[in-house]
Amino acid sequence: MQIRLWLIAGLAALLMPGPSPVAARDARPPQAQEDGVAHLVLRLEEVLQAGDVTRFHALLTPEARGSIHTFEALVRGPRTRAVVRERDRIPREDGSVDLLLNTFLERGPVGHIATWTAHAQPGQTGWVFTAISDLSSLDGLYRLSLGTQAFEARGLTITATDFTLHMRSGIAFATEAGGGVTGIVLRGNGEMTFTPEDPAERKQVEIFSGRPALRAAFDEAFVRLNPADLRARMGGAALVPRQSSPDEYRRALEVFEDLAHKTYRLDLQDLSRDRWSLIPAYRDVVAEVRTKRHDDLTYALSGAEAENVSLFQRATRRNMSVYPSASQVAARGRFYSEDDLADYDIEHQDVDVRMTPAREWIEGTARLRAKVRGAPMASMTLRLAESLVVRAVVAKGHGRLMHLRVVGQNNVIVTFPATLAPGEPIELEVHYGGRLPPQALDREVVALSAPQDLEPLVFPPDPRWIYSNRSYWYPQSTVPDFTTARLRVTVPQPLDVVATGIQTGAAEPVIDAPPAPPARAFTFESAKPIRYLSFVIGRFAPVVSRAIPGETPATLNVVASPRQVGRARAIADQAEQIFTYYRSLLGSAPYPQLTVAVSESDLPGGHSPAYFVLLNQPMLLGTVTWRNDPVSFESFPAFFIAHEIAHQWWGQAVGWKNYHEQWISEGFAQYFAALFAGEQRGPDAMASLMREMRTWALDKGDEGPIYLGYRLGHIKNDSRVFRAVVYNKSAIVLHMLRRLVGDERFFAGVRRFYEMARFGKAGTEDFRRVMESETGRNLERFFERWIYGFGVPAVKVTHRVETLPGGETELVIRAEQAAVVYDLPITIRIEQANRASREVLLLLTDTSAELRVPIDARAGRVRRVQVDSDGAALARFVR
């Protein structure tokens, strides 16, 4: 995750992409003198440069002169430089044209950009404007420079939320804009401290630095802030001037040039080659700190973010810490949904792409139907891979729209000619194209091992290309959205396509003019809402197509790479059994069709978008095992496909509110796969799997809570931590919840949760409330400990046999834990002398609990008491 500064993205919507930055005059089209419209635009630029209102009136028709007061005010006054760029031109039948113009006005270090629509027509002496109106504008652009006045840094301290920069000695230089100091260069002997209060965040800092509070010496730093914040950030102190040498200034200037433009910078492209910056919002801070031990660290406090405090390491591009401040939590609550960040909802997508896989080339047209959410909207941001060029954006009722690429991000910002009201519909058509490599499959099992005396034979896998949720191959919302969709994919023959949706008819031949090779178009319809569109290109032979009967009938298709057809036949029967079992648990299937595509690859992996599952089959011959990974279960080979099919329900039909809630996808899928193992092979098979999961969860669980999501293992680049906790620990937590509340109430609650959240996003609190309603129990502590916390109780279990007054005997089992109470169901197996055994459940929901079990004297003495016999109690049992 990168540091996102929404302020930049929102305000940057006033720009259009152009050629590589060049001087304004050099970028003027050479045909301007021959092209009357271009000549008119050039004259407008000269008028703005001169600030001459009289000459401006000469460019207007008499009728227009009395109605363009806004633009006339912009013309007045001297300026350093003026630039006008024609962005779009639409001819009318009467010979006139509609224009879209960008203007940039520079007065010393201050800049102003604006976007205008204009109408022009031929006049007696040349083209003239008949109308000009503003779309949007932005003041407050500054070309920053470092002042030469030095300041004393000894004792200087700058603070922000959980963050401090303290200078023991050194020198400081400032950059001013917006009425005061907006940036400070620090050089000398300094110390940075970062001390988050949240235990999970402190643990991440400890993983990174060795201690829960980060203290790092630094010798150079650059701080950006709002000028109104300076005194408060410095504890009421002021900058004290001092003398400096030319060498001290030169070194400070080097720091400034390197660090000052990493944030809050807009690239104006062909409007200006200079570096232009925005002023941070009030109370926002960014500090670039060059530490001696941890390389460059970036601290950011950004009020526009849902989690507004972050610490980022630029060299590794990893977040060390990301969380909401106490004030942020107080304002919005402890939990949030990513939908709260969305300005609009996409309701339907119609995407038509032509793929040239050998060149990794895509040409596409996407039509989006959306609706404005709760606030007026003047622009919308779409996510599209940065390597893809946007050729045009057209809106129904508005025509061709201005669009902008945010530098270094997969974002396209589209600006509307007028502010759209809440609830107002939007229909966009986006034309785009370019080179885009396919994405790699998620790898559920990553560690490969083989006997040392055996050299595996490897065949090159049959090529296939997948474009899905990580490659941003089509314009989509920056916040994943459930939509209906139509997808048309054209590929060269003889390649096939498997995609999200139900294929409508056979592939359609597409004949192009030579030398283009023959192609085929595959069309898919998604009548049920989906989170994102996906497709895979390859050679696929049909293997099975069968109806799966039931109250909600479905169709199962299995296709495979030519060499995988034999394996795929066996997979087809497994897939039907798994699908039928999950449907029986949850009452229905989310999508009426499931296609399982079996492909070849170097390593195993899988991906499960809506409507289809893609499975990698490794092309290795010989005795090869996949082990040493939290999700490698050699005792039950079908676990992998069971997990992937479960994602049709958990992860696709039910999404998650933010990255913290991904366990609702992975944990539920993992547990449902374990349930299927128990259904197919009996309770011992499921218990064996749960013990393996428990081992990994205990081994890696101290690195953070389930709720930390993708960030588990992120700092050390060890994805096994993520799988051990978000996959395995989550599955065990679900199993413990089941044991705590009973099978009937558990499965009724899970079904109700699925029905409530289907085709939407859910969070932990939603699941908790459903289970509390279903069971009548307060489960707040259970979820607090197991989902949001990452401790593990130490539990002592003892037992004794007591003889009652009537001669009967009882086995008394007692469990004790520390003062921090965890709700822990403990399964205990009792074996007697005649080998008879039974399991009992001890519910530990206080510091201690006792269970009395009558003993049948006819079975003989109690010979063994096995604690945690199903291996599913997350505790460290001590003697």
Explain this structure to me?
23% of the residues lie in helices and 38% in strands. The strands form 12 sheets. Strands 5, 6, 7, 8, 9, 10, 13, 14, 15 and 16 form a 10-stranded antiparallel beta sheet that branches. It is globular. The chain has 879 residues and is α+β, with helices and mostly antiparallel strands. Helix 12 (663-681) runs antiparallel to helix 13, helix 12 (663-681) packs across helix 14 (719-741) and helix 13 (683-700) crosses helix 14.
- DSSP E strands, number: 50
Estimated structural class:
alpha+beta
Largest sheet: 10 strands, antiparallel
Q: Name the poorly predicted regions.
A: 1-33, 443-457
Alpha carbon gyration radius = 32 Å
Number of helices: 17
- Taking all residues together, what is the mean pLDDT? 90
The first-to-last residue Cα distance is 44 Å
User: How much of the residues is beta strand, in percent?
Assistant: 35-45%
Helix content: 10-25%
Outline, from the CA principal axes?
globular
In short:
This protein is α+β, with helices and mostly antiparallel strands and 879 residues long. The model is unreliable at 1-33 and 443-457 (pLDDT under 50).
Task: List its salient traits.
50 strands; nine-stranded mixed sheet; 17 helices; 879 residues; 23% helix; disordered N terminus; ten-stranded antiparallel sheet; alpha+beta; single chain
